[in-house]
Design brief:
Distance between the termini: 51 Å
Family: Belongs to the peptidase M28 family. M28B subfamily.
Number of strands: 14
Subunit structure: Homodimer; disulfide-linked.
GO molecular function, one term: transferrin receptor activity
Organism: Cyclopterus lumpus
Keywords: Cell membrane, Endocytosis, Glycoprotein, Lipoprotein, Membrane, Palmitate, Receptor, Transmembrane, Transmembrane helix
Strand content: 5-15%
Oligomer: single chain
Structural class: alpha/beta
Length: 755
């Protein structure tokens, strides 16, 4: 600035004894940028005075020359030229300083985590309420006492999907949304489901004994009759069947008897022909979600798709039996004793233990309605988080549907009231959804996803599932997209625990959230299709009974009394805490400038799985070199993994260097964040054959886990292993990872593609 001052002074050929000060306030970091310019007075030059002050304070007796205009004097012409030059220089310096200030002033912390609280301040578009005030408001709106009347209002002993009871509950939900001042609507679908025989029975007969007629059924089982020797297989997991093979047990043409729990019913039926449950159960065995007769497209009444079936429909019969029926069979089985790890009490069965099973389910079409309400955002109203809960059940379904629906309605009431009466202005929208046909395999939710997939994948940035949020009180479990793990961890520290002595984190996480709280997202959870089919980051959670499953799901015994017994009469208190947990996650996602997603989390997951594949490829090449093409190399997959890592870190850097006051910039960055999950959906598989296309968390031959399993099969020379098929799967997975990296880089000129 001294140099600029000296230059301007020399132009006017005078000393810098008088100057005018220009204050250029940039409103950056609270500092003022000042530019001081020395301006010699033209009046001094004209009258020879000592300065502007002398001229203003004394009368001059000098007069202009007669007949001359002041502006035409040579001296004045020089002054005008100098003034013009001065204005140009001043403008240049102002522009230079502003540009330099913007370039040099960081707007975010320079840490790896861009989601720090330093930007919780107001912008011109939507004034931000302090986050502590937001959470305090939510706590004031929710209480355990308010849940009891809501439980009563939404309890119904008969609200199977598509029934009058289901429709009655749907009307109650939508009336609540309207009462809260929310925009509301319904979504109608016509779906095909299986119900128990309208006349006659499903039945079985063991060792030519009398026919048994279990009341339960498994929807989507094939109809027909199967006869074979009983084989007891514990929970029917892959590890259980490996133990049986290690004992040289014949698995061919056996009718498999398995227990409930640990994996979904559909996964059990993949490897068994008969399921055993401790009471009358009515789940489904479709290895997928949604209407299996319209796979990959919605069940709207006007669709004209040809008849087709999901590849996830089982080809073997499945039927539930009661605990008493199962115990009677187990006591009569011969053969080897079960492994000690299973209990060591029962025998596994032998060829003389013959049973005949007959299934006569009926396929019918039902009209179902999903119900929605929305609280619109004040900045990005077309970007939204979806909060959903199952509404239907085969019986009372208190834990399966009543608690979740009540939590949904109470959360909608609370946040609506915060917006209307307390000045809370969410930047983005919140959609509340009440799903029908959840008991048949998340049919309502999946059909909605299929119907609006193209728009949802671009606008829905998260799904929060409220199903089964209270099934016990000893544990608290969360399953979610890795992108949401950091948000979940912070939320656990914000919400009080049931014992009021600490937080959910201190009581349940105990310093290690991944070990004590997180668990894999299961295929039979309603959040799974949002994540693995649509690529929308999702979370599901709930209070549990510890390591045991709630025994009454899908039974007529899922009542309020049973759940109160499992929770020491604390259902309302636990429901209130679970609703707050969901509320904190949702509100954080619509409150902050940027979506709180952990962009680096997937780096470690990809690196770990790629490392396992690399190790197994090397093992197979050493042990079975003839099974893999000589040209196969893992280098390209490793390179793609590195490209993704660099692209995700580059996005973090872009966030740190961005101006969060710029609404459009925040929107662009959030859209890039939203693309991360969606890019893991393999573009090379059909939604009909492999609906869960996520290469890291989905299921099917396109996943990295499937590649690792295929290599294991090649190593052991399994008859179904195919080196050429593996080579093709490997190439497609490589390009899917590289495609994720390319898309994450955003601009085509920013791609890091060395393959």
């Amino acid at each position: 600035m001294d140099q600029a001052r000296s230059t301007i002074s020399k132009i006017f050929n005078g000393e810098p004894h008088s100057y005018t000060r220009f204050n250029l306030t940039q409103n950056m970091e609270g500092e003022n940028s000042q530019v001081e310019m020395n301006l010699s007075s033209n009046m001094d030059e004209e009258v020879g005075g000592n300065g502007v002050g002398d001229h203003l304070n004394h009368n001059s007796n000098r007069k202009p020359y007669a007949g001359q205009k002041l502006g035409r004097k040579p001296k004045n012409l020089c002054f005008m030229a100098a003034t013009t030059l001065l204005i140009f220089i001043i403008g240049y310096l102002i522009g230079y300083l502003i540009h330099r200030k913007k370039d040099s002033a960081p707007t975010c912390e320079a840490s790896l985590d861009p989601f720090v609280d330093t930007f919780d301040h107001e912008t011109g578009a939507a004034p931000l309420m302090d986050w502590d005030d937001v959470t305090k408001l939510l706590a004031q709106k929710l209480s355990a006492a308010k849940f009891e009347p809501v439980f009563s209002e939404f309890s119904n002993t008969n609200h199977r999907a598509g029934s009058p009871g289901d429709e009655s509950l749907a009307n109650k939900v939508i009336n609540k949304f309207k009462e809260y001042g929310m925009n509301s609507w319904t979504d109608e679908h016509f779906v095909k489901v299986q119900d128990p025989p309208a006349s006659g029975y499903n039945k079985f007969a063991y060792k030519k004994g009398r026919d048994e007629h279990p009341q339960g059924f498994l929807s989507y089982s094939p109809n027909g009759t199967a006869t074979g020797a009983v084989l007891y297989a514990y929970y029917g997991q892959e590890s259980d069947f490996r133990l049986l093979r290690d004992k040289n047990i014949n698995l061919t043409d056996r009718v498999v008897l398995v227990r409930v729990g640990r994996i979904s019913f559909a996964e059990k039926v993949v490897v068994g022909k008969l399921d055993n449950f401790p009471s009358v159960r009515l789940p489904q065995v479709h290895m997928g979600s949604g209407d299996p007769y319209t796979p990959g497209f919605p069940s709207f009444n006007h669709t004209q798709f040809p008849p087709v079936q999901s590849s996830g429909l089982p080809k073997i019969l499945a039927q539930t039996i009661t605990a008493g029926m199962a115990t009677n069979i187990l006591r009569q089985l011969g053969g080897q004793i079960e492994p000690e790890s299973w209990g060591g009490h029962y025998k596994l069965g032998e060829q003389s233990d013959v049973i005949t099973v007959e299934v006569n389910n009926v396929l019918i079409e039902k009209k179902i309605n999903n119900v929605f309400g929305v609280i619109k955002g004040f900045v990005d109203a077309d970007r939204y988080v979806v909060i959903g809960a199952q509404r239907d059940a085969w019986g009372a379904g208190f834990a399966a549907s009543t608690v979740g629906t009540s939590a949904l309605v109470e959360l909608a009431r609370s946040i609506s009231d915060m917006v209307k009466n307390d000045g809370f202005k969410p930047r983005r929208s919140i959609v509340f959804a009440s799903w029908s046909a959840g008991e048949y395999g998340s049919v309502g939710a999946t059909e909605w996803l299929e119907g609006y997939l193209s728009s949802l994948s671009m606008k829905a940035f998260s799904y929060i599932n409220l199903d089964k949020v209270v099934t016990g009180q000893k544990g608290f479990k969360v399953a979610a997209s890795p992108l949401m793990h950091r948000l979940i961890e912070s939320t656990l520290t914000e919400v009080n625990s049931p014992n009021k002595d600490g937080t959910l984190s201190s009581q349940f996480a105990k310093g290690n959230m991944e070990l004590n709280v997180l668990e894999p997202l299961k295929v039979d959870n309603a959040a799974y299709p949002f994540l693995a089919f649509s690529g929308i980051p999702s979370v599901t959670f709930g209070f549990s009974s510890g390591n045991s499953d709630y025994p009454f799901f899908g039974t007529m015994l899922d009542t309020k009394e049973k759940l109160n017994s499992a929770t020491s009469n604390q259902v309302a208190q636990l429901a209130e805490i679970a609703t707050r947990f969901a509320g904190h996650i949702a509100l954080r996602l619509v409150h902050d400038h940027l979506l709180r997603m952990d962009l680096i989390k997937y780096n470690n997951i990809i690196r770990t799985q790629v490392g396992q594949i690399n190790s197994k490829v090397n093992t197979v090449k050493k042990m079975q070199p003839q099974l893999l093409p000589k040209a196969l190399t893992v280098q390209w997959l490793i390179s793609a993994s590195g490209s993704y890592s660099r692209a995700s870190r580059k996005l973090v850097e872009d966030i740190k260097n961005s101006d969060l006051e710029d609404i459009e910039m925040c929107r662009i960055i959030n859209d890039r964040i939203m693309m991360v999950e969606r890019n893991f959906l393999s573009p090379y598989v059909s939604p009909r054959e492999s609906p869960f296309r996520h290469i890291l968390l989905g299921s099917g031959p396109h996943t990295l886990k499937a590649l690792s399993n295929h290599l294991e099969a090649l190593r052991t020379d399994h008859p179904e292993a195919d080196g050429d098929l593996f080579h093709n799967q490997f190439a497609l997975a490589t390009w899917t990872v590289q495609g994720c990296a390319n898309s994450l880089a955003s601009d085509i000129w920013s791609l890091d593609n060395q393959i």
